[in-house]
Design goal:
Blueprint: E1 5-11, H1 13-20, H2 31-42, E2 53-56, E3 61-63, H3 65-74, E4 78-86, H4 102-109, H5 114-130, H6 140-143, H7 150-159, H8 161-170, H9 183-196, H10 198-213, H11 222-230, H12 242-259
Parallel strand pairs: 2-4
Antiparallel strand pairs: 1-4, 2-3
Length: about 280
């Protein structure tokens, strides 16, 4: 029996296309996975790991089609381990485990509130990609979509770990039973405030606490109007995810709050164009 071998190779686009010709009977390409790998390559974030490309004893590709396709599509070479002479039966157990989620990655790098922080980062990277780029002719399906890899989310967390952890700790009580606020959107909101002006974060946290409490608030206050809006049984998210929609709602309401507006009923209006945080006039 021929022994299995493993060699580190630089996979060029031409070599990737050549290897893909040996892809017989593999699973259909998953476009989201392919786009995430292409994004990693284009951003220089593709990492060499133990996972690579594998061929069975008959030369049939049994693992690595997404990585090869990403290299072929982007035209960007990458180093990868190539394993040959695998037992054809090993195809049955390749990738049978659960795919690592962004939450798994953040937990690994030390985030305590990793689930909410991962969701917050997704919303932050979405809103940063949308600011100033919206066109009214854009189809609804493109409003919410942004291709993010685990690497994108982990790197953002590592770069902004201190601020994100501070925001996460401040929002620890949000998202509990009967709470009006969404924890991930609250974390993202406080992060954006800190990014604009560190002192604003305290004002934003106080604003959120008032909204969440919803009691002993003055008639005509923005906090009370938003609290009543968030308590509605049905809210039209306009085709956005809840995190995206709520973050924009918090920003719109906070701008009114900082201006001292009188507000009886909060109406979010159209989410696009994406609003920015208005800095107070000194």
């Amino acid at each position: 029996m021929t022994e299995m071998t493993q060699v580190l190779e630089t996979i060029t686009p031409d070599k990737a296309r050549d290897y893909l010709r040996q892809n017989i009977g593999n699973r259909p390409i998953k476009m989201m996975k392919l786009k995430a790998l292409m994004s990693d390559l284009q951003k220089g974030q593709f990492k060499l790991t133990h996972q690579g490309i594998a061929f069975d004893r008959d030369g049939v590709l049994i693992d690595g089609q997404h990585r090869l396709k990403a290299i072929a599509e982007t035209g960007i070479p990458a180093p990868m381990y190539v394993t040959r002479n695998c037992d054809p039966e090993s195809f049955r157990v390749i990738d049978c485990g659960s795919t690592r989620s962004p939450q798994d990655v953040l937990k690994h790098v030390g985030s305590k509130n990793y689930a909410a922080v991962a969701s917050a980062i997704r919303v932050l990277l979405w809103i940063k990609s949308k600011l100033g780029t919206y066109k009214s002719t854009t189809l609804k399906q493109y409003k919410t979509h942004i291709v993010l890899s685990n690497t994108d989310i982990a790197e953002f967390y590592i770069q902004h770990e201190s601020v994100l952890d501070t925001c996460s700790t401040a929002c620890a009580g949000f998202g509990a039973r009967n709470c009006l606020l969404l924890q991930s959107a609250s974390i993202a909101f406080l992060y954006l405030l800190y990014e604009c002006d560190a002192d604003l974060m305290e004002a934003g946290l106080e604003f959120l606490k008032k909204v969440d409490k919803g009691a002993n608030l003055e008639h005509g206050s923005v906090e009370l109007a938003l609290s009543k809006f968030l308590s509605l049984r049905y809210i039209d998210m306009q085709g956005y995810t809840k995190g995206q929609f709520m973050l924009v709602v918090y920003i719109k309401a906070f701008n009114k709050y900082m201006r001292g507006d009188v507000l009886i009923n909060f109406r979010p209006g159209n989410i696009e164009p994406i609003p920015t945080i208005e800095l107070p006039i000194l």
